[in-house]
C-alpha cells in the first residue's frame, strides 16, 4: 500500500535531478591558465533574443575547422598593405574548440560560455605586445554563435608594473565579453566570406563582431 506513495514522491525528485544533471553553475571554470586566461560559464548577458538551445553535443573537430576558417582583412597603418589574418590563432582555436564542445554539453539555456585568451600581438617596428581577445559563445537556432568584445587589446604593462612590480598578483583588468543588444567591441573588420559562416543582423544593424556558424 505504501509503494504507490513512494513512487509518486519519487517523481518530482527524479524530475528535479534530470533538470539539474546537465546544468553547470555560473562562474564554473572549464579551462584556466595564469591570472587572466579563462573559459567559463556565465549568465546570458540578455534574454531579449530568447534562451539558448542548451545543452547540445557538438564535435570539437568541426568547431575547430569552423573557427580556423574565420579570416578578416587588415590594413597596415605603416605600409597600407592589406593582409588576410585569422580571427583566432591556432592555439586559441585548439583551446576554444575543445572547451566549447565540453562546456555546451553541460550548459543550461540561460547560460553562455565566456572566454579570455592571450596572444603575442603583431609587431610594430621591433616591439611586440601581448594582447587579449575576449568574447562569449552559445548555441541557438542550430548554430554556434560567437560574439567578440575585446580584440587585439594590448596589455597595459606600465599599469601592471606600478600595480604589482613583483608580477605575482592578479591585475584587475575589466574585460568586454561582447553583448547581444549592442555593438561595443574592438573587432570592427569584415570577415572574409566562407561557407557556413554569417555575421548576425539585429534589426538593421549588421554585427561584424557576431559570428553565426554552422557546425552541424
Description:
The protein is α+β, with helices and mostly antiparallel strands. The chain has one domain (26-213). The chain is 23% helix and 34% strand. The chain has 4 helices and 10 strands, in the order H-E-E-H-E-E-H-E-E-E-E-H-E-E. It has helices at residues 3-21, 60-68, 90-104, 157-163, and strands at 29-33, 37-43, 71-75, 82-86, 111-124, 127-140, 143-148, 153-154, 197-202, 205-213. The strands form 2 sheets. Strands 1, 2, 5, 6, 7, 8, 9 and 10 form an 8-stranded antiparallel β-sheet that branches. Strand 6 (127-140) and strand 7 (143-148) form a beta hairpin. The longest helix has 19 residues, at 3-21. It is globular. It starts with a helix and ends with a strand. Residues 1-20 and 123-129 have low confidence and may be disordered.
Strand content: 25-35%
Counting helices, strands and paired strands, the structural category is alpha+beta
Mean pLDDT: 84
Q: Describe the global form.
A: globular
**How many DSSP-defined strands?**
10
* Order of SSEs: HEEHEEHEEEEHEE
Low-confidence stretches: 1-20, 123-129
Q: Brief description of this entry?
A:
By secondary structure, the protein is an alpha+beta fold. Helices cover 23% and strands 34% of the residues.
Mind sketching the topology for me?
Layout: H1 3-21, E1 29-33, E2 37-43, H2 60-68, E3 71-75, E4 82-86, H3 90-104, E5 111-124, E6 127-140, E7 143-148, E8 153-154, H4 157-163, E9 197-202, E10 205-213
Antiparallel strand pairs: 1-2, 2-5, 3-4, 5-6, 6-7, 6-8, 7-10, 9-10
Helix pairs in contact: 2-3
Amino acid at each position: 500500500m505504501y509503494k504507490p506513495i513512494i513512487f509518486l514522491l519519487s517523481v518530482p525528485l527524479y524530475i528535479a535531478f534530470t533538470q539539474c544533471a546537465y546544468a553547470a553553475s555560473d562562474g564554473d571554470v572549464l579551462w584556466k591558465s595564469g591570472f587572466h586566461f579563462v573559459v567559463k560559464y556565465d549568465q546570458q548577458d540578455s534574454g531579449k533574443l530568447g534562451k539558448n538551445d542548451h545543452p547540445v553535443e557538438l564535435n570539437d573537430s568541426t568547431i575547430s575547422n569552423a573557427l580556423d576558417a574565420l579570416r578578416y582583412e587588415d590594413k597596415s597603418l605603416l605600409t597600407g598593405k592589406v593582409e588576410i589574418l585569422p580571427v583566432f590563432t591556432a592555439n586559441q582555436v585548439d583551446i576554444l574548440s575543445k572547451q566549447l564542445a565540453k562546456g555546451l554539453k553541460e550548459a543550461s539555456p540561460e547560460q553562455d560560455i565566456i572566454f579570455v585568451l592571450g596572444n603575442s600581438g603583431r609587431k610594430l617596428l621591433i616591439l611586440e605586445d601581448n594582447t587579449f581577445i575576449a568574447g562569449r559563445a552559445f548555441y541557438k537556432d542550430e548554430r554556434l554563435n560567437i560574439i567578440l568584445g575585446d580584440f587585439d587589446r594590448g596589455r597595459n604593462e606600465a599599469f601592471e608594473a606600478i600595480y604589482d612590480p613583483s608580477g605575482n598578483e592578479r591585475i584587475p583588468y575589466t574585460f568586454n565579453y561582447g553583448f547581444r543588444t549592442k555593438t561595443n567591441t574592438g573587432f570592427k573588420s569584415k570577415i572574409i566570406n566562407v561557407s557556413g559562416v554569417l555575421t548576425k543582423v539585429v534589426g538593421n544593424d549588421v554585427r561584424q563582431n557576431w559570428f553565426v556558424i554552422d557546425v552541424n
